[in-house]
Amino acid sequence: RMIEAGALICRSNLLTEFYVGALKDGIGFVDVSDNRLTSLEVINPGKRLEMINISLNPITNFKLEAYSVDYMVCQNTALAELDLSKIERESALGNELFIDINPFLKSVNFKNNRLDFCIPDPDYDCVNSKFSLFGNPVLEFVCADEGDEMGFLQPYAIDLGFTLTSDCALSTNNATPVSGSTIYPNPANDMISIHSNDTLKQVRILNMLGQVVEK
Q1: Which of 153, 164, 166, 176 is closest to 105 using CA atoms?
Q2: Residue-wise pLDDT tens for the chain (215 aa)?
Q3: Listed residue (171, 180, 179, 181) closest to 144, CA to CA
Q4: Taking a C-beta distance cutoff of 8 angstroms, is the pair 84, 109 a contact?
Q5: Rounded to two decimals, what is the model's pTM?
Q6: Cβ proximity of 73 and 93 under 8 Å
Q7: What is the DSSP string of 136-183?
Q8: How far is 126 from 144, CA to CA, in rounded Å?
Q9: What's the half-sphere exposure (Cβ side, CA atoms, 13 Å) at 63?
Q10: Beta bridge partner(s), residue 142
């Protein structure tokens, strides 16, 4: 279906399915955080997306296309891969990307022949840009464009121990999703339920800082 202009806010519900698909002009906010979604597509090619929040969902499949994304939060999901290569360009307002505390996240793809981070540029005001990639304990690969983007991410690669590459085939081939798995609630206080079609060899429970508290 087509969404009319405005904000799409459906946070803190018990949604297990939600179809967004193609967006009309004027959609600025998409917030579906704190639900039970396992799959989501937000397709807005050629248009600016001011904010998207998919946090606190057992999402294993996520597709995002947009002209630019000002603010994105992806925390506490079940994603094994996060593909942001369909963001067409850097936001003129400065990007704020928070990709944190995703226990299964193995690869992130930023490669799109554009700048996705606040790198000094006389044509843009980037003073509000923020970036975070912490608390992803199994993150192995980040794919990015050669040049300034690789330079921006290099300190994160050294600090967090992932491989920084421009070969996205390498990162994709090594990121295996957790098939048919759901984890609920996430976050949790005293009890957590895990359902998986695969045989689990190890389970690690992390706190909101990405620290292992139980395994």
Answers
A1: 176
A2: 334 446 778 899 988 887 766 665 556 788 999 999 999 988 876 777 888 999 999 999 999 988 888 889 999 999 999 999 998 776 666 678 999 999 999 999 999 877 667 655 556 556 557 889 999 999 999 999 888 888 888 989 999 999 998 888 755 554 444 444 555 555 566 666 666 666 666 666 665 444 566 65
A3: 171
A4: yes
A5: 0.74
A6: no
A7: -TT--EEE--TTHHHHHHHHHHHHH-PEEES-HHHHHHT----TT-EE
A8: 19
A9: 10
A10: 108, 164
| Torsion angle, alpha carbons of 129, 135, 136, 137, to 10 | 150
Best CA proximity match to 10, nearest among 52, 63, 68: 52
Whether the CB-CB separation of 134 and 156 falls below 8 Å is answered with no
- Phi and psi at residue 14, in whole multiples of 5°? -120, 30
> How far is residue 21's CA from residue 116's CA, in Å, rounded to a whole number?
23
